[in-house]
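Exercise (ungraded).
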Amino acid sequence: MANSPRKKKPSKSEAKVVPLIKGRRATSYDVARLAGVSQSAVSRCFKPGASISGKMRERVMKAAKELEYQPNAIARGLITQRSNLVAVLVSGRLNLYYPEVLFKITEELAEVGLQALLFTVETEDDAEAVIEQAWQYQVDGVISASHMSQAQYKLLEKRQIPVVFFNRYFSDHPNTVVYCDPSEQVREVVKQLYTLGHRRAGLIIGPEDNMVSRERARMVQDSLSEFGIETICEVRGDFTYESGTSGLQEINRQVMDRPSVVICINDMMAMGCMDEARSVLGLDVPKDLSIVSFDGIGMSQFASYELTTIRQPIGRMSEAAVRMIVERVERPEQSHEKRVFEGAMIPGGSIARAPS
Amino acid sequence: MANSPRKKKPSKSEAKVVPLIKGRRATSYDVARLAGVSQSAVSRCFKPGASISGKMRERVMKAAKELEYQPNAIARGLITQRSNLVAVLVSGRLNLYYPEVLFKITEELAEVGLQALLFTVETEDDAEAVIEQAWQYQVDGVISASHMSQAQYKLLEKRQIPVVFFNRYFSDHPNTVVYCDPSEQVREVVKQLYTLGHRRAGLIIGPEDNMVSRERARMVQDSLSEFGIETICEVRGDFTYESGTSGLQEINRQVMDRPSVVICINDMMAMGCMDEARSVLGLDVPKDLSIVSFDGIGMSQFASYELTTIRQPIGRMSEAAVRMIVERVERPEQSHEKRVFEGAMIPGGSIARAPS
DNA sequence: TGACCGTTTGCATTCGAATGCAAAAATGCT
DNA sequence: AGCATTTTTGCATTCGAATGCAAACGGTCA
């Protein structure tokens, strides 16, 4: 018993004895030594559901606390092939819609024990670099709320890194998506515009290559023509406030007879548009000009704007995105899913009866 | 020569031969095998400044490209004791000032090859949990633009994790800080207010425990009394838009005779205040009421607001924060530094001559 | 007491890259 | 060519935790 093979072999063990932590942070070996158990036992103590006795757990935990031991997530990641890191790709500080999404996603990730590795992506080249970085860091998955080419997506797929798209997707390729479909609300808003006597609309849309913009524009066009409202002018912006102001200028330049309503593809541009109408053109919004838009970001409801807008349920969408990335990480073989949320119309005060 | 000790010992080498990548991602061993060199050589190829011949580099790189090899940052982190991760702690989606800082910092970090591990911190308990997480992930450093108690800071210090504070610090403890000192601009603004005939000011300040708020308030008080402007009322908000609106209500309730100017400790509250003044109280800003504030966030310059505000040079401050964290990671023994940037007054259009 | 079974524990190996050291190769010099 | 020097290369080990396997333990029952 005294000489059982379970006992440590002094030769080897002694060799790696270190002067019990000295500046160095404690490892599982340090804890094991202090508690007089094996390193495996320590490891098991920190793994939920592992086979370990109460007595042992207690001893280990006591030692761990004494040494302020916390398992090294890097080392764990190496052996388990799970980094617990999720790359979150967002673009543009331009559009205040992203921060809201980003913070929400980060919180949701934290809740399930994952960390957000943040990447800002403005161009497609950025995306390229970012994907390589994410790959180096062995991220378990990617949540992309930014640009990504099909080739880039395929690369990630080939590398078996699960991707969840936030408000964008490839229609000719299977992918996992969280999306907001505001078509119902668009129809509702347009109907209301019709009822208020609007027959001539201006449109400020987003970048050509942006899917959300394209889809929203399509829905708007569809509803407008359904109700027989004419689109007298369509200009392109880039989601920023400034492009909203210049968008209205542009509309003003292009058509003699001003539209009675301008539909903006996002809130930021709508705010720019509204400010331009009021400050520069001296119009009364909504009396002289109605404005509606999309997103429902926090500031769209500030008293200066009170936009009539179609909100995306960002909270639920973020939660869904996180759930889905977890799902895909755990069961990669499972087929793709697309979760589509309805929008919600916020009445606001930026529309009124069309001026006669 | 044919049997030189440099040659591989088949027994051991063969044992770990794997069917040359099959779903698995390529490792340095795979590359080494394909290129017919040692793993060390591959490693050195990816380490800038390592001793390696051009010929060797070429061969390795060719093989690496073929296998799409990228070094595993997790494994590297384990051995080098450098994760290249920096925890970025920001609070509040409430205050739109944070996203601007966050995105800027992330970009700056990326530029020097570091990754931002994002943590949102709202309460002090959050900070507790976040610090443990960061510790587990072996972050090289922490940039904190959020709450952190002195005890928590000391814990990080004890663990030898460098911290850079963004716009906050402990005055009774050495620490590394990026800070904006707007005192000059405060004086300038107050002087201007004096010149415009303002003699009675209201103040909307931030949370008691927030240093930026305290400091700004102090500066404002100092300048006001220097110029003999009376602070007739001081109310406390929490940096949000809503607390700006309710702040003005509160002022209105507390004093009969309205102040001619309200000084808000940040832009968000100033916007709330302005909207409240205009929409609810029916005042003309700036004719009936002047408003000034701090931060200079993007939307403070939207046409609806055009705040006269004191901007922080966020870009330079973020850059400095990143420089400093790098510095501290590389030379932890070096003494602390505090970099203080001046503010910059943005004239705006929210102040005017005091009503008589 | 001993045979048997389920549970706990430790051993040894593994993940993938970096690096000190010594051997080998390349280079310079006489 | 011969020797000294510098550069390049490979070997072997290391980082810290997880885990398959087998040994040890604890308990039950005859």
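Further reading is listed at the end of the chapter. For now, observe: Residues 1-21 of chain B have pLDDT under 50 and may be disordered. DSSP finds 13 helices and twelve strands in chain B.
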